[in-house]
Design goal:
mainly alpha, 26% helix
């Protein structure tokens, strides 16, 4: 019985020495505290992009004739003179552009989904890749307009003055 206790004690001592060695060697692999304090701490503050209201964007458009990529969703631009304006990639979803003068306007990539463009003058405008899904283009003048790649699915094209070679299906 005495031998069994001495064997337990020996096993315990071996285990304790092993643990001490593991802890000691693991401490050697850690970076020193002084090296950590010498590293400068840098923080990056998040600055959110300014949120511009649709009304502010409309004012900017009417003052500068330019509003590239801006949000004009639901804007009222009925009878507005936007001739040769730059509205590339602008969001004009559900905007009221009835009877607006958009002659020569750059609307490339613009979102005009559900917009009212009835009786609008869109002669010579660039509508390449524009989204006109469900837009009202009734009686609009599209003469010489670039509609290459434009989405006209569901658009109201009744009595549209259209570019040469443009077929309504």
């Amino acid at each position: 019985m005495n031998k069994s206790n001495s064997q337990k004690l020996t096993n315990w001592l071996i285990t304790a020495v092993f643990l001490v060695l593991v802890v000691t060697f693991s401490l050697f692999e850690q970076p020193s505290a002084s090296a950590q304090t010498q590293t400068p701490i840098t923080t990056t503050q998040y600055t959110p992009a300014p949120v511009t209201s649709v009304a502010a964007n409309v004012r900017h458009l009417l003052e500068t004739n330019e509003c590239v990529g801006c949000n004009l969703m639901g804007a009222t631009l009925k009878d507005a003179n936007l001739q040769a304006a730059n509205l590339e990639n602008a969001n004009l979803q559900n905007a009221d552009l009835e009877r607006a003068n958009l002659q020569g306007t750059n609307l490339q990539g613009a979102n005009l989904q559900g917009a009212d463009l009835g009786k609008a003058n869109i002669m010579g405008a660039n509508l390449a890749s524009a989204n006109l899904f469900d837009a009202d283009l009734e009686k609009a003048n599209l003469t010489d307009a670039n509609i290459l790649g434009a989405n006209l699915q569901g658009a109201d094209l009744e009595d549209v003055v259209r570019p040469q070679g443009f077929a309504i299906q």
